[in-house]
Design a protein that fits this description.
By secondary structure, this protein is α/β, with parallel strands linked by helices. Helix content is 48%, strand content 15%. The protein is built from 34 helices and 25 strands. The strands form six sheets. Strands 1, 4, 7, 8, 11, 12, 13, 14, 18 and 19 form a ten-stranded mixed β-sheet that branches. A six-stranded parallel β-sheet has the order 22-21-20-23-24-25, sandwiched between helices. Helix 23 links the parallel strand 20 (548-553) and strand 21 (589-594). The radius of gyration is 27 Å and the shape is globular. It starts with 12 loop residues before the first helix and ends in a 5-residue tail after the last helix. The structure holds the ligand CCc1ccc([C@H](C)CC(=O)N[C@@H]2O[C@H](CO)[C@@H](O)[C@H](O)[C@H]2O)cc1. The site of the ligand CCc1ccc([C@H](C)CC(=O)N[C@@H]2O[C@H](CO)[C@@H](O)[C@H](O)[C@H]2O)cc1 has 22 residues, from helix 6.
Length: 818
């Protein structure tokens, strides 16, 4: 039977309706008349997937046949957001589907609201991975994203008495119509055991691993559609299952729990995402997760994407694996094990291949976020990999000693294996030694990587270090999230910007056009109204009209300084209630927070409690609640970001200089016409350089000034004593005013600010509130404000993740579009 190419269903209302009803009846197995909203949503998702599947399958075939170089993106996190809207956008099916559903008496936006977003990430790193794979598909670059199909994603955040309470994220409970499981392609992953020397059939002494237990990795494929280009790449997420799910003998012996113990034990590996986004807990299960998805991915690519007779010496011509931070770095010894132990390749040849197959992106500057794994744990879980890491390190240190004879301190500093505070493997060092390239995610970050985090390595391999400033996908974060603005841009400069964001520059002249500025303000007002409707329905939060929307949304972390934002609010409030300032001179503001704290991060949770306590008090205070409102919708995620960002006037990017690697929220706000108040940190520096000092509200110490102050010694209590405004704000916080008179409730936060303040919030406070006064001044002239906001949009096309991908392709991956 000559089977031709797979064809997608007809792009017509009738064609769609036929496909949808067939899926509803035969796929979901319900009648239209009895279908629940979830039934309708699942059937719709499946139907849209059919339209994509044709290109997906054909794309996979051509990719394999063409033998082109593929980008393998290895990431422990993907913060994808809802899929339906993006799939409708990519396929151009939106209007057909809306009309088709209408004819069935179904409302498309009702079904879109039914989708649970896959929260398979913590924050910046996970969302960046999602933006990157979207851009690679839109740029027609063959890419496979590899990761973990966590059964439970990032926890659902609720507030109880103002305190964060985590709920499990059972995102799969209502079905998962976007995934395609392939149990037949399961991969066995080994763990534990020992290693031994042996002599193989041709008399060569070799080492081998004798693992003691194993699990199965089952791949679930997700489609990653390109925008209007017919390309559909693959995101392959691995789920752990027991090799031997059920032990009947044990069951028959009546020990039912024991009979399924292997199953539960195995499943634990992909059970839940670790909710930390900066301080690794060093749990063995986390290492199991990392090795699990890496081992599945490498074997999957080598055995299923390459011809059976492929010579692995040529592997670098077919794949480049990007290591998304240190989380997948165990892939380096795993590839060496596959090449040397299984494929009997010579060590040096295998090492040469390995060094061409990996590149490493670092996403942090916090020393505590750089993962190190105790050799004791590695010896227990991955004994052969530890041996290989030692051998890699020996070879590397031999080189270093030759290059710097007698400089034993340098060799000790650069060793992948450290003995202090315990014997452990520094994964960032392993990634740097093995990677063809090492990059930071913003100019300042990459410079600090060279100068402060990996100075010995950048001195030894200057050409290995580079920078690729982050970006965001304009499809989701402008075209999809901000339809009101999209329409205005399309009417003004056409639609080309969606895949060529530099074209936003064509908006520059319209910043001088009063009529365009007025329409821009209408767009912002409409987005605020839409947000207000959502927040009252979602959280019972009432957004006052006509307020400056001052938005700070990101993970809760002390270096991001949500506490300093709170001090600004407290200071303004204190001055009003104390009569220090005339309320009539105050710019009415609503401060919107969105932030999850890692469950074990105490000070972050104290800050959330403080923000909610202040919010409640301000809401009840007749003297101020028409002027100052604090809104803290719970469970900040991609879906809420899509509604919040287009409505914002002011974007808070106030981290301590030298701490935020890049930030990507900052880019999304600028591209949606918000002004940024920020420090010279991460990508803020590049945003300010592009939009111009007049259109960016800069404040605070620069990174060198921070380093200088820390070197000189910093005493936050002295700053508190010397700044009356700051003193009154902190005293009010400590007074019990926000906690029914309970003066102890705020102690942890107040004491930390006064006697620790690791991220210098008090030191930057004065500069910050002066900058905020400038914001009030600027906002007093809405037309001037709009002009600056429009210039921000026109000048930030650079921050497209398409541009980031082009840089990776040219300077790191040396791969190209099909
Ligand atoms: C092991 C615990 C852990 C988990 C996640 C991470 C991530 C690297 C943290 C993260 O998301 N970093 C953010 O990455 C973004 C994308 O590059 C940057 O824009 C942010 O500045 C950076 O904080 C570190 C440590």
């Amino acid at each position: 039977l000559a089977v031709g190419p797979v064809v997608s269903p007809p792009h017509s209302v009738d064609g769609f309706v036929k496909e949808f009803l067939r899926e509803l009846n035969f796929g979901t197995g319900v009648l239209l008349s009895r279908a629940t909203v979830n039934d309708q949503y699942v059937a719709l998702a499946r139907t849209v997937a059919h339209y994509l599947a044709a290109r997906w399958l054909e794309g996979g075939r051509t990719r394999r046949e063409a033998g082109v170089k593929v980008v393998g993106y290895l990431s422990a996190e993907y913060l994808l957001g809802r899929q339906l809207g993006n799939a409708l956008l990519a396929t151009g099916l939106r209007d057909i589907v809306e009309e088709g559903l209408e004819s069935c008496g179904i409302n498309l936006s009702t079904l879109r609201a039914q989708e649970v977003e896959p929260g398979l990430g913590n924050g910046g790193l996970g969302r960046l991975a999602a933006c990157f794979i979207d851009s690679l598909a839109t740029l027609n670059v063959p890419c496979i994203g590899y990761g973990i199909r966590y059964e439970y994603g990032i926890f659902r955040q609720t507030f109880v008495d103002g305190r964060q309470v985590e709920q499990p994220d059972a995102w799969l409970s209502l079905g998962s119509p976007w995934e395609f499981p392939h149990p037949e392609a399961a991969v066995q992953v080994d763990f534990g055991g020992t290693t031994e020397e042996y002599v193989d059939e041709d008399g060569t002494p070799r080492r081998r691993w004798l693992p003691s237990w194993n699990v199965l990795g089952v791949p679930y494929n997700y489609m990653v559609p390109g925008y209007h280009n017919g390309r559909v790449n693959t995101l392959r997420l691995w789920s752990a299952q027991a090799t031997k799910a059920f032990d009947l003998q044990i069951f028959n012996s009546g020990d039912y729990a024991e009979a399924v113990r292997a199953q539960t034990f195995a499943e634990n590996i992909s059970k839940v995402l670790y909710p930390e986004d900066s301080t690794p807990q060093g749990r063995e299960l986390r290492l199991q997760q990392q090795y699990f998805f890496v081992a599945c991915s490498l074997r999957d690519f080598i055995e299923r994407e390459l011809p059976a007779d492929f010579d692995l010496h040529d592997l670098p011509e077919r794949i480049i694996f990007q290591l998304n931070d240190t989380h997948p770095v165990i892939a380096v010894p795993e590839l060496m094990r596959l090449l040397v132990d299984e494929r009997k390749m010579d060590w040096d040849e295998a090492w040469a291949v390995t060094q061409k197959c990996f590149a490493y992106t670092c996403h942090t500057l916090l020393p505590e976020a750089l993962e190190v794994w105790p050799t004791e744990m590695l010896a227990k879980l991955l004994p052969r990999h530890l041996e290989i890491i030692y051998q890699i390190n020996d070879g590397f240190l031999r080189e270093v000693r030759e290059a710097f004879p007698g400089d034993e301190m340098r060799a000790r500093r650069m060793s992948i294996v450290t003995d202090y505070p315990e014997r452990a493997v520094r994964m960032a060092y392993l990634a740097t030694v093995a990677g063809a390239k090492v990059n930071g995610v913003a100019e300042l970050h990459s410079q600090l990587l060279r100068d402060k985090v990996l100075p010995d390595f950048s001195e030894y391999w200057p050409e290995k270090f580079t920078n690729v400033t982050n970006g965001v996908t304009p499809r989701r974060f402008i075209r999809l999230a901000n339809w009101n603005f999209t329409r205005l841009i399309n009417e003004t400069i056409g639609t080309g910007w969606v895949t060529d964001l530099d074209r936003l520059a064509e908006l520059e002249p319209y910043a001088e056009d009063p009529e365009f500025r007025a329409r821009f303000r209408q767009v912002k007002a409409a987005n605020k109204e839409r947000l207000a409707k959502l927040l009252v329905a979602r959280d019972g939060i009432v957004l006052p009209e006509g307020h400056l929307l001052d938005v700070m949304v990101k993970r809760l972390h002390e270096y991001k300084r949500q506490s300093m934002k709170l001090l600004h609010i407290l200071s303004t409030y204190e001055q009003i209630i104390s009569g220090a300032i005339d309320p009539a001179t105050v710019t009415p503001r609503t401060f919107v927070f969105g932030a999850k704290a890692a469950p074990g991060y105490k000070m972050a949770k104290e800050t959330i409690f403080a923000i909610n306590a202040v919010a409640a008090t301000l809401a009840a205070d007749e003297r101020t609640n028409h002027l100052l409102t604090v809104a803290f919708p719970a469970n900040y995620n991609v879906t809420l970001a899509e509604k919040l960002i287009p409505a914002a006037d002011l974007s808070e990017q106030i981290s301590l200089a030298g701490k935020e690697a890049s930030g990507t929220g900052n880019m999304k706000f600028a591209l949606n016409g918000a002004l940024t108040i920020g420090t010279d940190d991460g990508a803020n520096v590049e945003i300010r350089e592009l939009v111009g000092d007049d259109n960016f509200i800069l404040f605070g110490m620069s990174e060198p000034e921070v380093a200088d102050l820390q070197a000189r010694g910093y005493n936050p209590a002295a700053v508190y004593e010397s700044n009356p405004l700051l003193k009154r704000a902190i005293d009010l916080l400590a007074s019990g005013h926000f906690t029914e008179g309970n003066r102890d409730a705020m102690n942890p936060l107040v004491m930390d600010l006064l006697y620790n303040d690791r991220f210098l919030a008090l030191a930057d406070f004065q500069s910050y509130i002066e900058a905020q006064a400038k914001v009030d001044e600027l906002y007093a002239d809405p037309d001037a404000w709009s002009r600056k906001a429009i210039l921000n949009v026109a000048r930030t096309g650079f921050f497209s993740s398409d541009r980031s991908m082009r840089e990776y392709l040219d300077r790191i991956w040396h791969a190209k579009a099909l």
